[in-house]
Design goal:
- By secondary structure, the chain is an all-alpha fold.
- It has 9 helices and no strands.
- It has helices at about 5-20, 25-45, 45-55, 60-65, 80-95, 95-100, 105-120, 125-130, 135-145.
- Helix 2 (about 25-45) crosses helix 5 (about 80-95) and helix 3 (about 45-55) runs antiparallel to helix 8.
- The chain is globular and about 40 Å long.
- The N and C termini lie far apart (about 35 Å).
- The mean pLDDT is about 95.
């Protein structure tokens, strides 16, 4: 196993996300935002669909996504609207949410940035599969990101 390659790929992903977030060079912030978005998505998606999404991401990003996950959890159907997703992401970012995400509008833009980067690394078919599991408002939000 080439762990250095996994780390390098993960760092490239975080660098790309930091640039998309408008904070070039701040991979720590990008990592916290990515973690929060992935953890909120895993709460909303079925475990099978979330694992399918992760399959196409770099190994280090997969590790961030599954950290602390109890895979038997079923989808959190209370995340129905964009505002629900924003609140879930802010909750996941906990203590650093105010600094990392700011207000709800800034958080919404950060979530879109994460989705845009994920879309560049994941097939269109898989993105469509993820969208198919979501309520209309969330599906449209992801489509427009």
């Amino acid at each position: 196993m080439n762990f250095e390659k996994y780390v390098a790929n993960g760092n490239l992903f975080l660098k790309e996300l930091a640039e998309e977030l408008g904070v070039p060079g701040d991979k720590d912030r990008a990592g916290r935002v990515l973690r929060a978005v992935l953890h909120a998505l895993r709460r909303r998606l079925t475990p099978e669909e979330f694992l399918d999404l992760l399959a196409q991401l770099p190994m280090c990003i997969k590790a961030i996504a599954v950290d602390g996950w109890k895979i038997s959890e079923s989808p959190d159907k209370s995340i129905k609207h964009v505002e629900d997703l924003v609140h879930a992401v802010m909750e996941e970012d906990r203590r650093t949410a105010a600094r990392d995400l700011g207000n709800e509008q800034h958080a919404k833009e950060a979530i879109k940035a994460v989705i845009r980067v994920i879309k560049r690394h994941v097939s269109d078919g898989e993105i469509k599969d993820v969208e198919a599991e979501l309520p209309k408002q969330l599906r449209e939000f992801i489509e427009q990101a």
